[in-house]
Design a protein that fits this description.
By secondary structure, the chain is mainly alpha-helical. It has 3 domains: 20-56, no CATH class; 58-88; 91-130. 56% of the residues lie in helices and 5% in strands. The chain has helices spanning 39-47, 61-87, 93-129, and strands at residues 24-26, 32-34.
């Protein structure tokens, strides 16, 4: 069974500039600023003051990309389910009916056996206790 997912080439990784940390990025002037900071933080970092607005917008590009990722994974899963269901060998109607009859007969036999054992044990307990 082969996977239908596309494998990423390890050579396609994003390369970082030397000295650039995971939590830092560069603004337009080349100054290193926190990557998560909003535009107010960048302006404050340039001027040396405190940022006015550090919160990120509610609908960021990352959240949209995350939603697209989940949609792609769901669609890929459904494609794989479809492929696997085509491989299933379903029983014929005759085989299904025969198997069902066997199960019903076995359930009746086991329940009859357990009923007889229960009656025997309950009468034995009555004799011992009386």
């Amino acid at each position: 069974m082969g996977r239908l997912l596309k494998k990423k080439d390890p050579g396609q990784k994003k390369k970082r500039a030397p000295g650039e940390d995971a939590g830092l990025s560069r603004d337009g002037s080349g100054a290193v600023v926190p990557a998560f900071a909003g535009s107010g933080a960048i302006a404050a970092a340039r001027s040396g003051g405190q940022p006015k607005n550090v919160s990120a917008p509610k609908n960021t590009v990352g959240s949209v990309a995350l939603k697209v990722k989940y949609v792609d994974q769901t669609l890929q899963f459904l494609r794989e389910v479809k492929v696997e269901l085509k491989k299933v060998v379903w029983p014929s109607r005759k085989q299904t009916v025969a198997s069902t009859v066997v199960v019903i007969v076995l359930v009746l036999l086991v329940s009859l056996f357990l009923g007889i054992v229960d009656l025997g044990l309950s009468s034995l307990i009555k004799v011992v206790l009386s």
